[in-house]
Amino acid sequence: MQFPQSLGRSQLPLFHDAILANPAAPILTEIESSPPQNEPEAFSELSLRGASGHCRHLLASILRELSEELDARWLTLIDAPPSLTQAWLRESGLNRERILLLQSRGEQSALELACEALRLGRSHTVVSWIRLSAKARQQLAHAARQGSAQSLNILLG
User: Fold this and answer.
1) Is residue 65 part of a domain?
2) pLDDT tens, position by position, for the chain (157 residues)?
3) Which of 2, 32, 60, 77 has an alpha carbon 20 to 30 Å from 137's alpha carbon atom?
4) Is 57 part of a structural domain of the chain?
5) Known Pfam families for this protein (predicted)?
6) What CATH number corresponds to the domain at position 129?
């Protein structure tokens, strides 16, 4: 089915005319928290769902890669699940000499601990297991940019 073109004009010029009709209106707006084009994202989130064995196998691969980073800083794990024991880390082939395990306690939440670890810049990547709000994601991204680090949050199903 063909639709008639009004006055013989194609759709592109109509779109072009609509934009030029109001040149003061912004066409694209930049989000303040977004990194510059050539800078990598400071925050990533990964959701693993399915059989626990498969999820742990995928997680081992990801953490192994991160533990072998050329960056001399730590791979920091914040409030890792109980199944990620020292024995599991060893069996999964992770470079345990480059991994720092931190547990939140007392008045400091896992989010606060992760933000502090990111801000300090002594870790190339800080991995957390936290249910996050949009505001918390922004806090982690901001802290990661401050410390020239990466924040990775993992949600296990």
Assistant:
1) yes
2) 444 444 444 444 434 444 344 444 433 333 334 444 555 689 999 999 999 889 999 999 999 999 999 999 999 999 999 989 989 999 999 998 999 999 999 899 999 999 999 999 999 999 999 999 999 999 999 999 999 999 999 998 7
3) 60
4) yes
5) SulA
6) 3.40.50.300
